[in-house]
Design a protein that fits this description.
Blueprint lengths: L6 E9 L2 E9 L4 E8 L14 H12 L11 H17 L4 H9 L11 E10 L3 H12 L4 E4 L7 H5 L3 E3 L4 H5 L6 H12 L8 H19 L5 E5 L10 E4 L11 H14 L3 E3 L2 E8 L5 E8 L4 E12 L8 H4 L8 E2 L8 H8 L4 E2 L4 E6 L13 E4 L12 H10 L5 E5 L6 H12 L5 E3 L2 H7 L4 H17 L20 E13 L1 E3 L6 E3 L5 E7 L4 E2 L12 H17 L6
Parallel strand pairs: 4-5, 4-12, 5-9, 12-22, 13-19
Antiparallel strand pairs: 1-2, 2-3, 6-8, 7-8, 10-11, 11-12, 14-20, 15-19, 16-17, 17-19, 18-19, 20-23, 21-22
Length: 573
């Protein structure tokens, strides 16, 4: 057993969003108290829910006097950070490396014996992100017997990991900031963006969504959700209609827990709703008439849960951003993703097996961004080329428009070409790192040399550079219409290429549903007893580029509500 010097000691671990600092109190032989005194972790995923790591792990460490504590599934980084921080504090208290290793092997909580289970409810909802929570809340408030089944050990899904932004049009928050907007303007914008490179948009579903966006925002506020302010997600986009959750703003991740945490509390605490964690959907069940009447699930311990649902099954299992095989049809094979590791398309595949229509969409939400300095997701607007060295877009446009153009050109990356003199801190930092050789970005004394370093045809990159230089001198972008003030010169003597890596978040397409959130079969007919909302059923909601932040969460919330109401026998909104 470890021997400590009695007192209180500080330890530091690194979580999802940076440092996590703990104070650990010990006697000579025991850990008596653990307080997490500073962190920037995501609400819900890390704290403020009964299954969040900050609530779960410290009491278990104290109870078992062990660091052999299971990580919370879906919150691995925060869980590990707590354990690492406590280990560091114990070392400060006098524990040796050997002592800490023994604590990591000491008996911890015993997992229950795996046991198969069969149960019956009225409505089974799969996926506890924004869409699933909305569906479960509406169904529960409609008087139905509901179970919400989540693959991970926490609620929130992709929403909690997002920037927590919601779309609205003509809202009271916009009016408070003097912003003029209407539902018709918002609808026309979404339809125009969605159909730029094909006929992808379902007019009825988008119209229904826009007509009820603001009411859904008001619905959220009844559960404790708050709007901080309204912003333009890119300076070129007017009017401002992106509504930030508290603490949000700009291109940040992790504020979506401000949406899903109040929803979880409302469902569980106010309505007495049930959530089954660490349980993944594997198969949908149907009766002799083809009605979906349940599902077979697999728990993380390997046991099987069979749920029969007499009124219906609602799928809100997220997209497939973490499924490399399903994303392989896009030119982003070497992408990274901020989506949960659980987003592998299980709900989509299960529905497809019973005859649901799966629209294989040619687009995906991808943003090309620098891992060195973060450029690509803000308003930087210098010369951007694809991996062949070609310019393909007006760089001063919404980041998803830029990324869509790069993807459409068949490029797995982008390159930001600069001499570091542009008025953007991120570009200047990235240029400095490239010149000093402290990043994986490239720097050279000529465009020809730079082309060789990024493995594109020197003649192509030189021609692109020469043409861009001509446009800068003219003060007019005759090729893509970028405003003259953003035609930044690239004069050397050093030239850098800052690599823009693809990041995939929201996936498009998936199950086709009608405005009642009913899943359609391959003949366009509703499958009895099966409803869906969110990324698993985004057909008709997106074109090849993501139109604006807040669209995906807004759609998931609204059609989740519709699914819950329809499955429980209520009227539509």
């Amino acid at each position: 057993m470890a021997k400590y010097v009695p007192g209180t000691y500080e330890g530091i671990g690194r979580g999802y969003r940076g440092k996590l600092i703990v104070n650990v109190a010990v006697t000579e032989e025991e850990i008596t108290d653990i307080n997490i005194i500073k962190h920037k972790e995501v609400r819900g995923l890390a704290w403020d829910l009964p299954t969040s790591p900050i609530e779960v792990i410290p009491p278990q460490i104290i109870k078992y006097q062990s660091l052999n504590i299971p990580l919370v599934n879906g919150a691995d980084l925060t869980s590990s950070a707590i354990l690492d921080a406590v280990a560091a504090a114990l070392k400060a208290a006098g524990a040796t490396d050997e002592d800490v290793e023994k604590l990591k092997e000491a008996p911890g909580p015993e997992a229950p014996e795996p046991k198969d289970e069969i149960r019956t409810v009225e409505i089974a909802v799969f996926g506890a992100g924004a869409g699933g929570l909305a569906a479960a809340i509406e169904a529960k408030e409609g008087g139905a017997d509901v179970v919400l089944i989540e693959k991970q050990g926490i609620t929130g899904g992709s929403t909690a990991r997002s920037g927590g932004k919601l779309l609205g049009a003509g809202t009271k928050w916009q009016k408070q900031q003097g912003i003029y907007d209407t539902k018709e303007m918002c609808y026309e914008y979404l339809m125009e963006v969605g159909n730029r490179r094909g006929d992808f948009m379902d007019a009825a579903k988008n119209r229904y969504l826009i007509e009820n966006l603001n009411e859904t925002l008001d619905w959220l506020t009844t559960m404790g959700y708050e709007v901080q302010d309204v912003e333009a997600i890119h300076v070129s986009m007017q009017p401002w209609r992106v509504h930030n959750s508290m603490g949000g703003g700009g291109q940040t991740n992790g504020q979506g827990g401000e949406i899903t945490t109040p929803m979880t509390h409302h469902y569980v605490d106010a309505l007495g709703g049930e959530i089954v964690y660490n349980t993944a959907l594997k198969e949908l069940l149907t009766d002799e008439d083809g009605k979906v009447n349940g599902a077979v699930c697999e728990r993380t311990d390997g046991s099987k849960l069979t749920v029969y649902a007499t009124k219906g099954v609602i799928l809100s299992t997220g997209g497939y951003a973490r499924n490399k095989e399903m994303c392989a049809r896009y030119p982003v094979a070497h992408y990274f993703s901020t989506a949960p590791k659980s987003n592998v398309g299980e709900g989509l595949m299960a529905a497809e097996k019973i005859g649901a229509r799966n629209f294989v969409h040619p687009g995906i939400q991808v943003v090309y961004t620098s891992l060195t300095c973060g450029i690509g997701i803000n308003d930087e607007s210098g010369l951007i080329v694809n991996q062949r060295g070609e310019r393909v877009v007006n760089e001063w446009s919404y980041q998803y428009h830029v990324s869509d153009a790069l993807a459409a050109s068949g490029s797995n990356c982008g390159w930001y070409i600069t001499s570091g003199e542009e008025p953007y801190g991120g570009v200047q930092y990235g240029f400095k790192q490239a010149v000093e050789g402290t990043s994986r970005d490239k720097a050279a004394d000529s465009i020809e040399e730079l082309a060789a370093m990024i493995k594109c045809d020197p003649a192509v990159l030189q021609a692109t550079y020469d043409r861009y230089t001509q446009l800068v001198a003219k003060g007019e972008d005759e090729d893509f219409g970028k405003p003259a003030r953003f035609l930044h010169p690239i004069d050397g003597p050093k030239y850098a290429a800052l690599r823009l890596h693809p990041c995939v978040t929201v996936t498009f397409g998936g199950l086709e549903t009608d405005i009642s959130a009913r899943v359609l079969d391959n003949e366009g007919k509703p499958i009895p007893g099966l409803y869906a909302a969110g990324e698993v059923a985004d057909t008709g909601m997106f074109g090849t580029e993501y139109p604006t932040c807040g669209t995906s969460i807004g759609g998931a919330l609204f059609y989740g509500r519709i699914a819950g109401r329809m499955a429980s026998g209520q009227s539509m909104l």
